[in-house]
Design a protein that fits this description.
The complex is a heterodimer. By secondary structure, chain A is of the alpha+beta class. Chain A contains two helices and three strands; from the N terminus they run βαβαβ. The two termini of chain A are 20 Å apart. In chain B, helix 7 packs across helix 8. The longest helix of chain B has 14 residues. The chains are: A alpha+beta, B alpha/beta. The interface between A and B is medium-sized, with 22 and 21 residues.
């Protein structure tokens, strides 16, 4: 989604360089295991610093 | 000390006014603006046009912010607007698990239930069950895609165009597009509803 201001820093008045924001899709099963409903997916917007290489 | 939020907000506003930090007339203007000028009717106009005009439909899905700005909507709580489209195979629904991020310029202020801890936690874990409780039954072969809004991007759902609406004009189409349909917890209304 491009470069964005990082709200975690903005909210406490800290100046930081903008971060890239990505939409990441997770299968329901990967998040909730056997309790997940079939055929469901959650798309979450995550800032670059939230992500680590898989 | 009271737990009633309305009383606490009144007290907070009175204090801010007393200290000269806010102008009460300005507060009233902002409330009136969102009550009369900004609301789900804006989003309904966007959806109706997308149904009726294929070129606008494509622009809306490619760059929601720009296409919605063409219609004069945007600004606060809507600097990055993303439209996602329901199809017979995929149903989209929007939640903000952290708080209550919502596309104000096209949908107005969020409904109370959108901010509830129950909706925010359960919609990601059990979307089919929550949608069914809200009156929307989805077939097992329809994929459910839950969009969790961040502070940055605000999502709106373009519902499926109901059958039997081929001959309708824009204003008639707008009346079929409800706020709940654009959050993704309902379908667009049938033309004779």
């Amino acid at each position: 989604l491009g470069a964005t201001l990082f709200p975690d820093a903005l909210a406490v008045g800290r100046h930081e360089p903008p971060q890239h924001l990505y939409t990441v899709a997770f299968a329901g099963r990967d998040l909730f295991g056997d309790e997940a409903e079939p055929g469901t997916e959650v798309r979450i917007d995550l800032y670059e610093s939230y992500l680590v290489p898989a | 000390v009271t737990d009633d939020p309305a009383v606490r907000v009144e007290a907070l506003e009175a204090l801010l006014v007393e200290k000269g930090l806010v102008d009460p007339a300005l507060v009233d203007d902002v409330i009136a603006h969102y009550e009369t000028n900004v609301g789900p009717l804006n989003g309904a106009k966007v959806v109706a046009r997308a149904w009726a005009e294929p070129a606008f439909h494509d622009r809306l899905l490619a760059d929601g912010t720009a296409a919605i700005a063409e219609m004069g909507y945007g600004g606060a709580e809507g600097h990055l607007l993303i439209a996602v489209e329901n199809t017979p195979a995929v149903h989209n629904v929007v939640v903000c698990t952290l708080c209550s991020c919502y596309p104000w310029p096209v949908l107005g202020l969020p409904p109370r239930w959108y901010k509830s801890p129950e909706y925010r936690s359960r919609m990601v874990a059990q979307p089919r069950a929550v949608l069914a409780e809200m009156g929307l039954e989805l077939a097992d072969d329809v994929r459910v895609r839950v969009w969790d809004s961040s502070a940055e991007a605000r999502y709106m759902v373009v519902p499926e165009r109901p059958a039997g609406t081929e001959g309708l004009g824009l204003e008639e189409l707008e009346r079929l597009v409800t706020r709940d349909a654009m959050i993704g917890v309902a379908r667009a209304l049938a033309p004779d509803a």
